[in-house]
Amino acid sequence: xxxxxxxxxxxxxxxxxxxxxxxxxxxxxxxxxxxxxxxxxxxxxxxxxxxxxxxxxxxxxxxxxxxxxxxxxxxxxxxxxxxxxxxxxxxxxxxxxxxxxxxxxxxxxxxxxxxxxxxxxxxxxxxxxxxxxxxxxxxxxxxxxxxxxxxxxxxxxxxxxxxxxxxxxxxxxxxxxxxxxxxxxxxxxxxxxxxxxxxxxxxxxxxxxxxxxxxxxxxxxxxxxxxxxxxxxxxxxxxxxxxxxxxxxxxxxxxxxxxxxxxxxxxxxxxxxxxxxxxxxxxxxxxxxxxxxxxxxxxxxxxxxxxxxxxxxxxxxxxxxxxxxxxxxxxxxxxxxxxxxxxxxxxxxxxxxxxxxxxxxxxxxxxxxxxxxxxxxxxxxxxxxxxxxxxxxxxxxxxxxxxxxxxxxxxxxxxx
Length: 416
Ligand code: FES
Ligand SMILES: [Fe+2]
Known about the structure:
Layout: H1 4-11, H2 18-23, E1 27-32, E2 41-46, E3 49-55, E4 61-65, E5 79-81, E6 84-86, E7 93-95, E8 100-102, E9 120-121, E10 123-126, E11 129-133, H3 146-149, E12 154-162, H4 166-173, H5 177-193, E13 206-214, E14 217-224, H6 232-235, E15 238-241, E16 245-248, E17 254-265, E18 268-278, E19 293-296, H7 311-321, H8 338-355, H9 388-394, H10 403-412
Parallel strand pairs: 12-19
Antiparallel strand pairs: 1-11, 2-3, 3-4, 4-9, 5-6, 6-7, 7-8, 10-11, 12-18, 13-14, 14-15, 15-16, 16-17, 17-18
Helix pairs in contact: 4-8
The structure holds FE2/S2 (inorganic) cluster and fe (ii) ion.
FE2/S2 (inorganic) cluster binds next to loops.
């Protein structure tokens, strides 16, 4: 249980808030590159700010405040120019820094434009995603996580908007025991209701859990009943990368899986499942898998009920039913919640570091450390014993429109 004030500190992400200031020290994914291929602009709401991402006539991406400072029209309907974007209403033009560069109907000798500017943030592309940096200069390096930079990968990216604060999703990632219940026993109960009394690998009991702070976040480890301490799950585990990314292990094939929980505002989160698969040298990849595939992940059915027959849908049900901002003044944490307590403590520490003028955890400024960041990650994960197809279809990947091609490809190269 924490105080109301502490809960606000952990969950408010807008400009000028302690958490908002911390989050603005990191590069934040805002879109996939494929989204700007057939259109010039995309409205983006991130950390409580309404912005427009656009491609100018020279092909360069820009990110500035959506509202035109003249009389408030949306620049998401703007006209792309050589070095910026022009408001559709009266033609004021803005460059990538958000500076007004032209006011076509003001007198030729007017200097009014020099006094007008909006927020403008740098953007960079990596691994098919577009990232923004919304903090003070100098910007740190955009972390080149292995999933983003691995070569010749098939990339499939699921996305959805969830009506909840990002912190309760992150706390779930420091709560290993939930897998045993939510994805194990609860899933088995649902199966039984459908006349399918099959045990699922997730339901194995947790003997112990451990959490280690490392240079990019926290590594979470678990030992399940029947496992030896040599198992990857206990020896290596997988990390939460500060401030909003979870990396999960796989069944041994060249798979990289990230879950990114990007705060849209205090009560909404853009959830991104970023999967990269490496089929291996000499394997012919079908055309459908050559380009990054971005798809929507549904979590409610036609009657408005949660879809709980897949792993990520079960997680989403719990996050959303906790309320838009979980009331942490009315919780009762037990011994298995030590990871959650550690996560909150670490966030509070990073807030204080930023307030003291220091870089927070995971900041990279040395290019020699940023060629490819290989994360500690279990490769033989307990529930992957069930095979590639079975696992793939039980996660949100089943909504990927090219999932069958993916399964066929890995079948053809003998990955199980
Ligand atoms: S509202 Fe944008 S130029 Fe007038
Ligand atoms: Fe989960």
